[in-house]
């Protein structure tokens, strides 16, 4: 498909009417989990300080694209990071990681309600995309959704470095990423929520 050159007025309209899907925080909490936990346990930083800082970075990023003309934001919360194959403890979801994720998501949820009222985001629309509970429903009820494994990744696990022959049966493809089928399963609800929230 060739890109079309449009007049500045039309370009501004395209930018303003597009939906910007913003996903920030999964790696900050999930990938740096052990480092974060160590700092929190030593009292260097509190959970609230950490998640407030992440929320601030997210808002700052959205302000930058708002200043470029963006007006519609779908802000994704983080997934249940304590239920990733990487962070599970003896097969059970890691409470510490999930508490961090929910604390951050709560701050994003509040931001989505208050940011459009601020002068710096005048004329904007925000919708919160609940990745945590939507994916958690699939993890808890994986058989209902046609999966046979919600605890282990199909690939790249310490006990299975070669990809499994049936990735569609797994909620997670590897130790941190949901599988393509898991994303397909949750995307239908998420798209509906975005359309409804930005209508």
UniProtKB/TrEMBL annotation:
<dbReference type="InterPro" id="IPR036514">
    <property type="entry name" value="SGNH_hydro_sf"/>
</dbReference>
<dbReference type="InterPro" id="IPR001087">
    <property type="entry name" value="GDSL"/>
</dbReference>
<protein>
    <recommendedName>
        <fullName>SGNH hydrolase-type esterase domain-containing protein</fullName>
    </recommendedName>
</protein>
<dbReference type="GO" id="GO:0016788">
    <property type="term" value="F:hydrolase activity, acting on ester bonds"/>
</dbReference>
<dbReference type="InterPro" id="IPR050592">
    <property type="entry name" value="GDSL_lipolytic_enzyme"/>
</dbReference>
<dbReference type="Pfam" id="PF00657">
    <property type="entry name" value="Lipase_GDSL"/>
</dbReference>
<comment type="similarity">
    <text>Belongs to the 'GDSL' lipolytic enzyme family.</text>
</comment>
């Amino acid at each position: 498909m060739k890109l079309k050159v449009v007049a500045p007025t039309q370009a501004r309209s395209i930018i303003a009417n597009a939906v910007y899907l913003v996903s920030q925080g999964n790696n900050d909490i999930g990938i740096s989990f052990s480092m974060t936990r160590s700092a929190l346990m030593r009292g260097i930083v509190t959970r609230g300080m950490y998640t407030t800082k992440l929320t601030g970075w997210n808002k700052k990023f959205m302000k930058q694209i708002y200043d470029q003309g963006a007006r519609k934001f779908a802000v994704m919360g983080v997934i249940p990071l304590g239920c990733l194959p990487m962070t599970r403890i003896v097969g059970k979801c890691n409470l510490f990681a999930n508490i961090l994720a929910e604390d951050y998501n709560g701050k994003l949820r509040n931001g989505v309600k208050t940011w459009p009222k601020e002068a710096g985001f005048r004329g904007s629309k925000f919708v919160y995309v609940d990745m945590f509970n939507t994916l958690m429903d699939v993890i808890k009820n994986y058989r209902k959704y046609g999966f046979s494994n919600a605890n282990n990744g199909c690939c790249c696990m310490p006990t299975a470095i070669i990809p499994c022959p049936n990735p569609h049966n797994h909620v997670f493809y590897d130790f941190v990423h949901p599988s393509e089928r898991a994303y397909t399963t949750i995307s239908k609800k998420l798209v509906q929520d975005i359309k409804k929230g930005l209508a």
